[in-house]
Amino acid sequence: MARRRQLYEGKAKILFEGPEPGTIVQYFKDDATAFNAQKKGTITGKGVLNNRISEYLMTRLAEIGIPTHFIRRLNMREQLVREVEIIPLEVVVRNVAAGSLSTRLGIQEGTRLPRSIIEYYYKNDGLQDPMVSEEHITAFGWASTQDIDEIVQMTLRVNDFLSGLLLGVGIVLVDFKLEFGRIWENDEMRLVLADEISPDNCRLWDAKTGEKMDKDRFRRDLGKVEEAYQEVARRLGILPEAGIRDLKGPETMQ
Ligand SMILES: Nc1ncnc2c1ncn2[C@@H]1O[C@H](COP(=O)(O)OP(=O)(O)O)[C@@H](O)[C@H]1O
Ligand SMILES: [Mg+2]
Fold first, then answer.
1. From ligand 2's centre to the CA of 47, what distance in Å?
2. pLDDT number for residue 245
3. Residue 185: which residues within 8 A CB-CB, separation 6 or more?
4. pLDDT tier, 31 (very low <50, low <70, confident <90, very high otherwise)
5. Which among 129, 131, 135 is positioned nearest to 120, based on CA atoms?
6. How far, in Å, from the CA of 86 to the mean position of ligand 1?
7. For the chain, which terminus, N or C, has the lower number of CB atoms within 10 Å?
8. Would the CB of 15 count as within 6 Å of ligand 1?
9. Given a cut of 80, is residue 171 above it in pLDDT?
10. Exposure string over 26-38, b if 16+ CB within 10 A, otherwise e
11. Which whole-number Å values give the CA distances from 184 to 71, 72, 196, in the listed order?
12. What atom in ligand 1 is closest to the CA of residue 125?
């Protein structure tokens, strides 16, 4: 296979030029980072599972009319997506108190929030992704008021849909992070859901036991990280066809 041009290497994925203009290939790595990349490690099979989980969730969301960048999965670790101009925001939705919300505001982890809360963080590793308000977002031109309205509407729909879907398989969607991007078509701009939706950027708790089934197992050294990601995929009914033994996937990326 011809070598592809690498566009970007991030903490969890590598982006390659896609086969057609306006497309890119997302390659999912096993690398894991936490606390703004101060903690680094690998979670064996994570890339394969996240590729599959993100494909599944983005496909279900497209079915209810949420526009996404996802086109199709190419292999165990790669998916083809529409190339977008990423809006430099991490859009976080919280249903239950956990993580930074608990530490910053002193609200005990596990407290059900009175309503879903949306937070914005400026995507900038150098600044450690600081929290920002709509004022900052519009003043600095990262997104317009209309863009934010659209993002909020989509985010709340995604939250309701995913909360229900996951609760159906015994998982509480505690919180998660979304990224959005712009696609230009004949001078018209559309916002679409981009990046990935996986246990790397969701907090997922077992509905019965409260056990964590997401990246917090890695962040907090709780052990059984691989097993937790696998269990999420198993409950969604999407463990890779080839079986657990093949989770390492192909060694080469070119
Ligand atoms: N459809 C897309 N088009 C262009 N960039 C994208 C798309 N989807 C996600 N991205 C960007 O690609 C990168 C994915 O790699 P990742 O390892 O998550 O990076 P990071 O370390 O920046 O979080 C992110 O910076 C994300 O914003
Ligand atoms: Mg990322």
1. 12
2. 56
3. none
4. very high
5. 131
6. 8
7. N
8. yes
9. yes
10. bbbbbbbbbeeee
11. 16, 20, 21
12. 22
> Which top CATH class is 86-206?
alpha beta
209 CA to centre of ligand 1 in angstroms? 33
| Choice from 6, 11, 15 to test ligand 1 binding pocket (greatest atom count within 8 A of CB) | 15
- Tell me what the mean pLDDT of segment 146-151 comes to: 98
Q: pTM of this prediction?
A: 0.95
> Encoding tokens for residue 99?
């993580």
Which residue's CA is the closest to the ligand 1 atom numbered 8?
195
CATH 3.30.200.20 residue window(s) in the chain:
6-84+224-246
For ligand 1, whether the C-beta of 197 sits within 6 Å is no
Q: Which CATH number fits domain 6-84+224-246: 3.40.190.10, 3.30.413.10, 3.30.200.20, 3.90.1710.10?
A: 3.30.200.20
Distances (CA, A) of 109 to 94, 99, 101, 131, 147: 12, 7, 9, 20, 31
CATH 3.30.470.20 domain residues, the chain? 86-206
Q: Which two tokens stand for residue 17?
A: 């030029």
